[in-house]
């Protein structure tokens, strides 16, 4: 597996100082979690799943979830489960699949059923997404994933989704997150990443955020996100990679507020029309939310439309400036401060060290862009392909 592998060699040479490196199931857990990028959800009931997955892989998608939960009607769950198993088996028969594949189940027994039904498909299954993860329900799911791993003879990962009322409600939040943190610590080697279910959080209050706003404008939800990162996203060895919530919109509409994308970067790249196209498809809001995800300690993102993948990955690549700062910070472990080589900020070696380490980890899977290359260049290359 490799990010941006669908770009041709000349384009890669033009864009990247250091190209993205391959990654795989046997990689270090944190590296694999960082490589998730945009995780595309698709209903497990789709009849053309094998074709769809192959097509998305060719377009640069590197992680997908076959969804048996919210995306599937109650009376279609069994059909979806059978279809998910058949799809994984069929993909395995074709050879290695260049992406991470997960199944989001509804109940813990669904994990065992899928594992017991899989044939060749066990070779392409990365793990399971656990919905509405709580301190009460979580252990049963994680034990089921462990049992499935033993049955299939393959290390399977779990990705819990934090979205329940116990976490959303202020009076129970801290206690619930402490309990969840303890449970996840017991299964650390199996937890690939922690996902945030902002749609369910909004539903607790009857809210659906408008496309002119990001999730960070919904205060009751952003407070929950901040506490999830505080409890579960620490960089002291106790935390996990936290992935961003879904952006729901992808079609043209009448706008109430001004677009969230500045014009200047696009004018400098002669890409004004491209900017207009992004705005018309609500991708300006997505780009803004991705930037806010990163600012709040979150990596990667749940997506429900293929057009969102390029935006997530374009903003995941490490810029030449970030790489220059990170390598300078890690050059010596003696503390102190020095001006950035770009002459626009101060780099403090001890406070910025963890940031620098995470930046180089991200660089290994998403690459480092050449000096002067911006997200506009990357996004244009990915969208125009």
Automatic annotation (TrEMBL):
Its cofactor is Mg(2+). Pfam families: C-C_Bond_Lyase. One of its GO terms (biological process) is oxaloacetate metabolic process. One of its GO terms (molecular function) is magnesium ion binding. It comes from the Bacteria. Mg(2+) binds at residue 200. Keywords: Magnesium, Metal-binding. This is ATP/GTP-binding protein. It comes from Rhodococcus pyridinivorans AK37.
């Amino acid at each position: 597996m490799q990010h941006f592998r669908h770009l041709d060699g000349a384009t890669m040479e033009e864009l990247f100082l250091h190209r993205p490196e391959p990654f795989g199931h046997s990689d270090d857990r944190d590296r694999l979690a960082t490589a998730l990028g945009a995780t595309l959800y698709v209903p497990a009931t789709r009849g053309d799943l094998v074709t769809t997955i192959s097509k998305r892989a060719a377009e640069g998608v590197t992680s997908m979830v076959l969804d048996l939960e919210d995306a599937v009607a109650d009376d279609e769950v069994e059909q979806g489960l059978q279809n998910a198993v058949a799809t994984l088996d069929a993909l395995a028969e074709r050879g290695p699949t260049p992406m991470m594949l997960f199944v989001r189940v509804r109940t813990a027994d669904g994990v065992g059923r899928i594992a017991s039904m899989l044939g060749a498909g066990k070779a392409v299954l990365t793990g399971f997404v656990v919905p509405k993860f709580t301190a009460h329900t979580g252990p049963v799911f994680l034990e089921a994933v462990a049992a499935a791993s033993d049955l299939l003879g393959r290390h399977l990962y779990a990705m819990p989704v934090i979205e329940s009322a116990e976490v959303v409600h202020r009076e129970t939040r801290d206690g619930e997150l402490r309990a969840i943190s303890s449970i996840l610590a017991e299964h650390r080697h199996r937890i690939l990443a922690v996902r945030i279910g902002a749609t369910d959080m909004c539903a607790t209050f009857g809210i659906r955020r408008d496309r002119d706003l990001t999730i960070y404008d919904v205060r009751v939800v952003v407070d929950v996100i901040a506490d999830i990162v505080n409890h579960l996203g620490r960089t002291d060895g106790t935390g996990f990679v936290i992935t961003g919530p879904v952006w729901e919109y992808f079609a043209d509409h009448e706008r109430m507020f001004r677009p969230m994308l500045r014009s200047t970067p696009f004018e400098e790249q002669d890409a004004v029309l491209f900017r207009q196209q992004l705005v018309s498809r609500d991708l300006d809001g997505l780009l803004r939310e991705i930037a806010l995800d990163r600012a709040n300690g979150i990596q990667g993102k749940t997506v429900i439309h293929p057009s969102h993948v390029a935006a997530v990955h374009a903003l995941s690549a490490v810029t030449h400036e970030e790489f220059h700062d990170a390598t300078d910070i890690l050059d010596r472990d003696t503390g102190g401060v020095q001006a950035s080589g770009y002459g626009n900020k101060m780099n403090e070696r001890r406070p910025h060290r963890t940031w620098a380490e995470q930046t180089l980890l991200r660089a290994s899977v998403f690459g480092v862009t050449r000096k002067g290359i911006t997200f506009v260049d990357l996004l244009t290359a990915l969208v125009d392909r």
